[in-house]
Amino acid sequence: MGYLLTIDAGTGSGRAVIFDEKGNQLGLGQEEWSHLGEEGVAGAMNFDYVGGWELICRCVQKALNEAKICGSDISAITSTSMREGIVLYDKEGKEIWAVANVDSRAGVEVAFLKKEFAGVEEEFYARSGQTFALGALPRLLWLKNNRPSLYEKAAHLTMIDSWILQKLSGVFASDPSNAGTTGIFDLSKRTWAKEMAARVGIKEDIFPAIFEPGKIVGEVTKKAANECGLKEGTPVVMGGGDVQMGSAGLGIVNKNECAILGGTFWQQVVNIEDGTVDPAMNLRINPHVIRGLSQAEGITFFAGMVMRWFRDTLAKTERDEAIKGGIDPYAYLEKLALGVPAGSYGILPIFSDSMKYGRWIHAAPSFLNLPFDENRMSTAALFRSLEENAAIVSAINLEAIKKFSDASPEYIVFAGGAAKGFLWPQILSDVTGIPVKTPVVKEATSLGAAFAAGAGVGIYSSIEEAAKSLVKWDREFVPNSINREIYDELKQNWQKAYEKMLLLLDEGVTTPMWKAPGL
What angle do CA 155, 159, 162 make, to 5 degrees? Predict the structure, then answer.
């Protein structure tokens, strides 16, 4: 039996995961990392490519040890990563500058592009499905304006997942699913739109060859083998962006299929035809790892982070009680929340807005409609209201996707940390009115990448074939029609309230939870 290695460069950690051919996880090495600020540069989040590579090599060795195999047992290696992060290299192939996905230094450049190239963002969005908010163009322009010597040296660009592949094989390459998040890309043709860079005065000769996920890029070099404990000559296979690979790992490989990935951010993704974009420019559109498909994506900001904040502040007593009793704090809070009726007594949490990609800003965090009643004003009620709020934002985003794409998913696949509970999946089904399925493997990104690695060396005929045959289901939740009526009214009230909260931002009364660069 062959073994497949996925290297995953996430926002908060790097890890290496080993699977067998049946998709069983056998070994894991994981270490947290942090991104580096830069003195005098607001919003800077540099990616540490020196320390990061050393960390990844340690993770590979840990995964091999846990799986009780040798590097020579690995049949193929691939990678996945946070999207939007980029790495630049000089002509000798040495890294010279890199930023993580959360880097927001280029606010001035976003504003400049919007003003000096009026209408170009809309024109580029029609081809790429991306706005300037998280794209590479403003960041490259920042480098040109502020670090001109580095900019002049730049000869190659990769995304962070393909940086891993370059470290392994020495080959500069990228794939549509992650390269597409630069905004310098054509959704229909699934290749770079280099003329976009030239249009705004950015180099157009730094972009690497595009490989589809599941295609062999090269082989592990002797240097990389020595550093990571791998075998020289092992096939290195193109992977892709974390959300799209996670979709493959959840079996979301056909048109109209839908997943909600419930982590720090929640992503609502629906598979649509290549080249389809949102006329309102509210939704982000990304190339899928499956050829012929794009993904419409809504993002709920900080849903998981808000829950962690709530657990560690307002629910600290309940958290400590749960830990003392050997119970997961979230499971304990969900049990308490079962005693709260649907609608949480009308409490309206104001945190993430629904997706408005063209003007991406979130109101000041708050709770509205807090009842002065000791039987209703409880930790459990606040906790349930937060779960309902994340589901409401997801439902609004899915409705927006349906409006321009006519996509009507038969079910939602719910995965990530939020899907481990017993209440949140049911709330999601009740709010959306759509059945919800949770998979056996809920942390699916590395698994989806392993499907690509296996497809590259012929273990699977394709990523789609692997997904259809290996993804297994754990539980299914069906909508409660009575609760659905309650949530429809709650959703309407929440939308009206959020609009009023945004007006307070515009008037300078409150400060945003988050806003896109350039706003």
Answer: 95
Residues 128, 69: Cα–Cα separation, whole Å: 42
User: Residues 278, 142, 7, CA angle at the centre, nearest 5°?
Assistant: 70
Residue 396's pLDDT is 97
CB 461 within 8 A of CB 455: yes
d(CA 7, CA 450): 9
pLDDT at 508: 96
If we measure between CA atoms, which residue out of 11, 27, 7 comes closest to residue 19?
27
Please measure the distance between the N-terminal and C-terminal CA atoms of the chain and give it in whole angstroms.
Answer: 53
108 and 205 both lie in a single domain: yes
pTM higher than the cut 0.90: yes
Token pair recorded at residue 137: 């163009």
CA distance 45 to 30: 21
d(CA 124, CA 482): 44
**Residue 198 and residue 93 share a domain:** yes
User: Per-block average pLDDT, block size 10, for the chain (519 residues)?
Assistant: 93 92 94 91 95 98 97 97 96 97 92 95 96 94 97 98 98 98 96 97 97 98 97 98 95 96 90 92 95 95 92 97 96 97 98 90 96 91 98 97 93 92 97 96 88 98 96 96 98 98 96 85
Query: Phi/psi class of residue 93: alpha, beta or left (left: φ > 0; alpha: ψ in -120 to 50)?
Result: left
Which CA distances in Å does 249 have to 12, 144, 452, 509? 20, 38, 10, 44
The CA–CA distances, whole Å, from 293 to 123, 253, 290, 296 equal 21, 8, 6, 10
Shared domain for 182 and 218, answered yes or no, is yes
Q: Are strands 348-350 and 473-477 parallel, antiparallel or unpaired?
A: unpaired
238 and 257: one domain?
no
Ranges assigned E (strand) in 353-477: 361-362, 366-368, 412-415, 436-439, 473-477
Do the Cβ atoms of 17 and 27 come closer than 8 Å?
Answer: yes
Query: Distance (Å, rounded) from C-alpha 486 to C-alpha 343?
Result: 6
Give a yes or no: residue 448 inside a domain: no
* Widest CA span in the chain: 68
Strand partners, 155: none
- Contact status, residue 183 vs residue 197, Cβ threshold 8 Å: no
Specify the long-range contacts of residues 345-348, CB closer than 8 Å, at least 24 apart.
345/369, 345/371, 345/376, 345/381, 346/371, 346/490, 346/493, 347/371, 347/381, 347/382, 347/385, 348/385, 348/389, 348/490, 348/493, 348/494, 348/497
Q: What's the alpha-carbon Rg for the chain, to the nearest Å? A: 23
Task: Give the pLDDT score at 134.
Answer: 86
Closest C-alpha to 98, from 109, 82, 116: 82
292 and 319 in one domain?
yes
The DSSP 8-state label assigned to residue 498 in this structure reads H
Show the domain range for 125.
Answer: 3-243
What's the CA gap between 16 and 483, in Å, rounded?
42
| Number of compact structural domains in the chain | 2
Amino acid letter, 485: E
Q: Which helix (H) or strand (E) holds 188?
A: none
Write the CATH number for 167.
3.30.420.40
